[in-house]
Design a protein that fits this description.
single chain; 582 residues; alpha+beta; 22 strands
């Protein structure tokens, strides 16, 4: 694999900041150059030739010739690449790796092209935000306790390596070298990160962190949720971990041979350390401040904490005590967008400065196009450029990258918080079409609809049907879980409804949901059956507030902002079932 650069043992954060300041001083020029480079490198691709650019690489020609697209439009091209077609389809050079994004309306994970350029931009984002973090929260030469897990890569029909975007990054040599250069290599051996069993890997991450507890400079994970899950687990296994350290022998719960071998190299009998950890834990009140207590030299806790992660901040602050929470960068399976260059801001206020050289970015103003966007028509929006956005306005992001995505609607809604030099700082607002999400799961209205349709087939066999339905994410439980409300046309038996509940749970085939269910970071789906007439009551409520019947749509997901509707639903529940599908 081509290296990003000949990386020294250590790099100079101030140099990285200087480079970032240069890039953002004249973001418009950098955007033009970036688009020119993308189109020049990939001009021979079948997809670009189809739109008749004829070698032109300027923004105006690009926007005039190439249409806005969603994943559905590019899927046939990506499928051909995955099936082994080596010709220049979306890019000039062949794509050798595929990233798996979360499941979409098709009910299966999306394939997204991944290449060295995307890996380069990942490292650039990591290093940029590290440089700004390090300025505010300097760290010594130590280790990072990273709760990261790599899923298995598999081969597509055409022999390309495929895995989640994070897996593709963690498996690269560049990731390791960058972590070393940042003086924060992971505590845990590779065998733990790449282990086949999530629970065993998590236990060994905790054990590795404790072995190196004085060296740990930061505690992090991709998502805030994973950090909480790790320390909730710690509460359960604290004594077992102390026994392993005291005796220098790994618990029998770890059965994966490669993990056992790697961990036994780290583990030596250390009764003093075991006693100290145990004593510290016993001295805590309800585990408050657990992280700084265990890792006295940690400077901060780090991970994605915005969007659907915000509900977890309260518990994360409980574990983190007085340690600052720093929100990680902004990106998607399709590529990165911005770095957090203001690490002192609390996660709720985090904004991300767009790196103008990692892709070409356009923005659809929401205010002017709200109705068209709702209908999800690609249409001819007047998209504006990176430097033309206005502070305080909301936009949907359009991405053109080095891996074959051109004018691609990412589906994210962002708000412009301000500018860093001439590049905007974006706050993530929501997925434009997202309904159900607890941590890494992403399910749309269409996914919900498909799940309900599948389960309703079981009712149909008994001459019953679903009158109406909606959903709710219940994070008051731990772990959080999906709740589906059903109004059924007649009396259905308990066994049938239990079967429907399991069917609903299994019908959410989003990769993030399924993997989270398997390791119980998302709890069992709950089916609540409501009285006949409940959805009419919701309609009455809507009309009572001045709404028009002709405009009424059953809300397919009832969020916290819609508390009155949630109360109507909850007050009318007659039966409730939990899935036993996983």
């Amino acid at each position: 694999m081509r290296m990003l650069e000949k990386m020294d043992k250590k790099f100079d954060p101030e140099e990285i900041i200087e480079e970032f300041e240069m890039l953002t001083k004249d973001a418009e020029r950098v955007q033009r150059e970036t688009l020119h480079k993308i189109l020049e490198e990939n001009g021979s691709a079948e997809y670009l030739e189809k739109w008749g650019l004829d070698g032109r690489t300027d923004p105006d020609s690009f926007k005039a010739c190439v249409p806005l697209v969603t994943h559905k439009d590019l899927d046939p091209y990506i499928q051909r690449i995955a099936d082994g077609d080596n010709s220049p389809i979306l890019t000039g050079k062949p794509i050798t790796t595929i990233s798996l994004s979360s499941g979409t309306t098709q009910g299966k994970p999306k394939f997204v092209p991944f290449n060295d350029e995307l890996l380069d931009s990942t490292m650039q984002i990591f290093k940029t935000s590290y440089a700004f973090r390090n300025r505010e929260f300097p760290i010594g030469n130590g280790k990072a306790l990273q709760f990261i897990y790599s899923s298995k890569q598999f081969e597509t029909k055409g022999g390309l390596a495929a895995g989640t975007a994070t897996t593709n990054v963690y498996r690269s040599l560049q990731f390791k070298n960058t972590m070393k250069a940042m003086q924060t290599p992971c505590c845990s051996p590779d065998e733990v990160i790449f282990g086949p069993d999530f629970q065993q890997s998590l236990y060994c991450h905790l054990l590795s962190g404790l072995i190196f507890c004085d060296n740990v400079q930061l505690v992090g994970s991709t998502f805030a949720h994973s950090i909480i899950y790790a320390f909730r687990t710690f509460e359960q296994v604290c004594e077992e971990l102390c026994t392993d350290i005291r005796e220098g022998v790994l618990t029998s719960r770890i059965t994966v041979p490669s993990i056992r071998t790697a961990m036994s190299k780290l583990l030596k009998p250390n009764p003093e350390l075991a006693d100290m950890i145990y004593k510290k834990c016993m001295g805590l009140t309800n585990w408050y401040g657990l992280i700084p207590e265990l890792f006295p030299n940690a400077k901060y806790v780090y991970g994605i904490m915005t969007g659907s992660m915000e509900p977890y901040l309260k518990k994360l602050r409980h574990y983190s005590g007085n340690l600052p929470l720093l929100s990680a960068d902004y990106g998607a399976s399709e590529g990165w967008i911005g770095a957090n260059v203001n690490p002192k801001l609390p996660p709720e206020s985090a904004a991300y400065a767009v790196l103008p050289n990692i892709g070409y970015f356009e923005f659809i103003p929401l205010r002017e196009n709200a109705e068209v966007l709702k209908k999800d028509e690609v249409g001819s929006f007047q998209a504006v450029g990176l430097t033309e956005v206005k502070v305080g306005e909301e936009y949907e992001i359009i991405v053109t990258n080095f891996a074959g995505l051109y004018r691609y609607r990412l589906g994210d809604v962002v708000k412009v918080k301000g500018f860093h030099n001439s590049t905007p700082e974006l706050q993530f607002i929501c997925r434009s079409n997202l309904l159900l999400t607890i941590n890494i799961d992403k399910n749309t209205e269409k996914d919900l609809q498909l799940a309900v349709e599948a389960a309703a087939k079981l009712l149909a066999e008994e001459k019953l049907d679903v009158v109406d339905f909606t959903s709710h994410v219940d994070v008051s439980t731990d772990p959080g879980h999906y709740v589906i409300f059903w109004e059924v046309s007649g009396e259905a038996g308990d066994d049938l409804l239990k079967e429907c509940c399991n069917c609903l749970d299994l019908s959410f085939v989003d990769a993030g949901y399924m993997s989270s269910r398997k390791v119980n970071t998302i709890g069992a789906l709950e089916l609540r059956v409501v009285k006949r007439g409940t959805f009419l009551e919701i309609l009455d409520h809507f009309v009572g507030q001045g709404g028009a019947v002709s405009q009424f749509k059953t809300p397919r997901c009832v969020g916290p902002a819609n508390n009155n509707v949630l109360q109507i639903l909850s007050g009318n529940v007659v039966k409730s079932y939990f899935s036993s599908a996983f």
